[in-house]
């Protein structure tokens, strides 16, 4: 399977070039277009309970679409928000993805939710992250551009919680509070994630939480 990513980083479009017999699994609503010879199957991946856990706790779609090529063809996918797309090759090591950043992946990649404890709860990332594991390409999306950062063993790097896209399983992860409680509640910069290498992390240059914080007070009120 070959891929191209066009119009990056603002309005990225992922084009997958599929050979006969190849298949890719994508989030519901990600499909933009496809050529002849594509079969589409919509299913609750992992059964009812697995899909509920992924949807309610992991923030992803209850249903996933599997696109199978009956001949050489192409499929285009795009994320729901203006932003970037990046490809990552899984080779057996887990990859942890924040809610909403999984776009698509090879059919053989296993997907589950991973409990993150209080650290992700207080970090605003939800109690669960998506855990991808197996062999094959995974495609991640963002709000804004994607910035990659490789950490050496023992190297620390701190990121605002709203700017995390994904990180490798070898990377340590801890949420910290910047300043005191007043700073946490009122400054908008109170909670950060400190990663410890070795491993790679993916960041997004814009934050959905920051957008909502700016937008909601400007919406008309009925009062």
What is the CATH C-level name?
Alpha Beta
DSSP strand tally: 19
Q: Assign the structural class, choosing from mainly alpha, mainly beta, alpha/beta, alpha+beta, or little secondary structure.
A: mainly beta
Q: How many helical elements? A: 4
Spatial strand order of the main sheet: 5-6-3-10-13-8
Assign an overall shape.
Answer: globular
What gyration radius follows from the Cα positions, in whole Å?
18 Å
CA distance, first residue to last residue: 55 Å
Mean pLDDT: 83
Estimated share of beta-strand residues: over 45%
Number of domains: 1
Binned, the helix content reads 10-25%
Task: Give the H and E element order.
Answer: EEEEEHEEEEEEHEEEEEEHEEH
Low-confidence stretches: 47-60, 117-127, 181-188
CATH topology: Double-stranded beta-helix
CATH architecture: 4-Layer Sandwich
Please give the largest β-sheet.
Answer: 6 strands, antiparallel
CATH superfamily: Mitochondrial biogenesis AIM24
Tell me what the structure shows.
This protein is mainly beta and 223 residues long. The chain has a single domain, classed as Mitochondrial biogenesis AIM24 (Double-stranded beta-helix, 4-Layer Sandwich). The chain has four helices and 19 strands. The strands form four sheets. Strands 5-6-3-10-13-8 form a six-stranded antiparallel β-sheet, with no helix packed on it. A six-stranded antiparallel β-sheet has the order 11-12-9-16-19-14, covered by helices on one side. It has a four-stranded antiparallel β-sheet with strand order 1-2-7-4, with no helix packed on it. A hairpin with a 6-residue loop joins β1 and β2. The longest helix is centred in the N-terminal third of the chain and has 11 residues. The chain is globular. It comes from Halomarina ordinaria. This is TIGR00266 family protein.
């Amino acid at each position: 399977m070959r891929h191209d990513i066009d119009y990056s980083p603002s309005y990225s479009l992922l084009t997958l070039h599929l050979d006969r017999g190849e298949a890719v699994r994508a989030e519901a609503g990600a499909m933009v277009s496809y050529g002849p010879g594509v079969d589409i199957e919509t299913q609750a991946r992992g059964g009812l309970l697995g899909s509920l856990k992924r949807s309610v706790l992991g923030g992803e779609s209850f249903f996933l679409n599997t696109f199978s090529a009956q001949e050489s063809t192409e499929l285009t996918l795009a994320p729901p928000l203006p932003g970037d797309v990046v490809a990552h090759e899984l080779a057996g090591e887990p990859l942890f993805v924040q809610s909403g950043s999984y776009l698509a992946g090879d059919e053989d990649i296993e997907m589950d939710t991973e409990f993150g404890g209080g650290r992700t709860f207080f970090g605003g990332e939800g109690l669960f992250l998506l855990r991808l594991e197996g062999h094959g390409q995974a495609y991640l999306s963002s709000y804004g551009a994607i910035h990659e950062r490789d950490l050496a063993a023992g190297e620390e790097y701190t990121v605002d919680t709203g700017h995390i896209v994904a990180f490798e399983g070898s990377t340590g992860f801890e949420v910290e509070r910047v300043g005191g409680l007043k700073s946490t509640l009122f400054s908008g910069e109170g909670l950060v994630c400190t990663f410890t290498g070795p491993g790679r992390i993916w960041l997004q240059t814009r934050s959905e939480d920051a957008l909502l914080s700016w937008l909601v007070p400007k919406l008309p009120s009925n009062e």
